Amino acid sequence: MDEVTWIEVLPRHREHALRQRVITDSLTLGRAWDNDIVLDDPHVAAHHLRLERDEGGGWTAHDLGSVNGLHVEGERGRRDRVVLAPHLTLQVGHCLVRLHRGDEEVAAEVPLQRRSPWPAALVLVALVVLVALLELWRGETGEPKFIRYVTGALALATLLALWTAAWALVSRLFAGHARFGAHLLVAAAGVLAYSLYDPLCELIAFALSWPRLELYAWAGAWIALAATCFAHLRVVSSKRLRLKAVVVGALATLAIATQALTIADRRADWGQPIVLQRLAPPWLRLAPARAPAAFFDGAATLKARLDAARSEEPAGDDAAAMMMSD
């Protein structure tokens, strides 16, 4: 046969692929050393399967009586015989086996990433620390102390390093490359985005008198965290990005819904929380000031509602508790 055929084997841990040119019309795969292709997988039999090429150039896989059998990836049932088609993948134990023709098209060449992520990552880390120090200074109510700024900067840098190291470890385990610089760039960008987002929400809520914007600003934090995690997953591997986006989005939605229910329950017990923790200078206020008469009218309306509620008899368990106390 003059047709060029290659066999590709992805081992159990997917760290690398074995690719070997097929020069015969029959070959065996298994754990024994007398096979043409030796598979290092305890779930593979000593002689697991045989591949045979017919006169037309087609290939057929035959199970050689193994315990775990022969499977087609994506299917549950085991097969005794599989006629190999283009892009069909066999599952042998935890290994994946594919055949490729010599004239099969391959993906386009990927350009080399010659630009290092480290300069941009270090610039973003410096900006993150600078924004954190400015926020610390803005919240000072007493005499500034140098040690507070030093410990704050060191704590933030340590958290960034630990977060980046964790993702680099995941990347090394599942993709074979750590890419610490790229993960540091993603982490710093996410922290910087949230560091600017939070005070901006507070400033807009004060300037335009939109308390709800500050009340629900925490939802943006979950969205920023989800976007950062998705970017980390993309650095780890660019495969199945749609699935990764769906999973990360679903987890973020669940977290937002859970926190919204918790806040609503807490608000029912403790009332309206404080909206703005820090007041900005009056010249930043863009919304028109309310007239004193409108303020006092609102206070009178609220007082009337409270007086009416105070005069009503409690219902349910509250009424029973009052009767028992009497």
TrEMBL record:
Q: Where are the transmembrane segments?
A: 118-137, 149-170, 182-209, 215-233, 245-264
Domain of life (superkingdom)? Bacteria
Recite the UniProt keywords alphabetically: Membrane, Transmembrane, Transmembrane helix
Domain FHA, first and last residues per copy: 27-77
The positions making up the signal sequence are none
Q: Which SUPFAM superfamilies match?
A: SMAD/FHA domain
Keyword Transmembrane helix: yes or no? yes
Q: What is this protein called?
A: FHA domain-containing protein
